[in-house]
Amino acid sequence: MTEARFTLSAFGDEIAVKLHDQLAVLADLQIGFLELRTVWGKNVLDLDDDEARKVASVCAAADVGVSAIGSPIGKSPITEPMADELRKLDRILRIAEIVGTRRIRIFSYYPPDISTNARYDEYVEVAAERLAQLADHAAPRGYTLLLENEKEIVGDAIERCATILRLLKRANVSFVWDPANFVQVGESRVTERGWPSLGDHVGYVHIKDARLADGSVHAAGEGDGQVPELLTILRETGYQGFLALEPHLAVAGHSNGFSGPEGMAYAVQSLRRVMAQTGCVEVNG
Fold this sequence. Notes:
The protein is an alpha/beta fold. Strand 6 (103-106), helix 4 and strand 7 (144-148) form a beta-alpha-beta unit. Helix content is 38%, strand content 19%. The chain has an eight-stranded parallel β-sheet, covered by helices on one side. A two-stranded antiparallel ribbon has the order 3-4. A two-stranded antiparallel sheet has the order 10-11. The protein has one domain (5-277): Divalent-metal-dependent TIM barrel enzymes (TIM Barrel).
C-alpha cells in the first residue's frame, strides 16, 4: 500500500483581506500552500490577469504554492444558462493557469426552492449533466474539478453526492470531503456512513468540524464530523493530497468564512493534534 502523504493548505481569506498578511500568517504556521478564494476583497472569479499575476508573484516570493482555486462555479441557480457557467469556468481556468494550479473547486447548483431539501432528488440528474459539461470543458486543458458537498445545493447529503458522482463518471472530477457541511445538513456518523460510497472519489479534503445539535462550526476534532475517523481512513488507504483548512471560526458565511490569524492558528494546532493522535504525518508538498 502507498504511504499516505498529507500536505496542509489554508484558505487565505480566512486569515486576512490582504495577500501579504495571509502569507505572513501561513509562514508563521509553516504552511506552504494557499487555497485562493478571495484576495484584496475580490472573489477569485473577478480578478483580472494583472491581479492574478500579482498573486502568483507574491506567492512565489513567499515560497507558497496555490493548492486549488476556491471558485464559486456551481454555487448558482441550476436554471442559470449553461453558457454563462462555461464563460465563468473559462475565466477561472485562465486564473488557475496564471497562479499555477490545476485544481478547481466547484459545486452542484442551487435548486429552485432551497427552503427544504425534500425535493432535491428531482434535480440530481440535471446537476450531473451540468457538471459533466464543466468537466468536459476543463479536461482537454488538463484541469481537475473538485466537487464539494455544501448546504442548500443539490449535492448536500451523502447519498445525493454519491449519486451525482456515479452519474457523472468523469476522470477529471474528484470529490472534496467537507465534514462540517455534511453535519450541517443533519448527517450523523459521516465518515462511518459516507466513506463506503464516496471514499473512492475523494481527492481533496476541507478541514472544519461542526456539531449536530446546533450546526455550530468548530475546529477539527471538536464536533460531530468524525475528523479523527476520517484521517485514520485516509492514512490507511494511502491518501496523497491536501488537507485544506477552512475553519470558519469567527464568521461562517454561506459563500465565505473568516477566522482571523488567531483563529487560523488555533485551527491548525487542532488539526495537527488530531493528525498526531491518528498517526498522520505531514509533508511539505
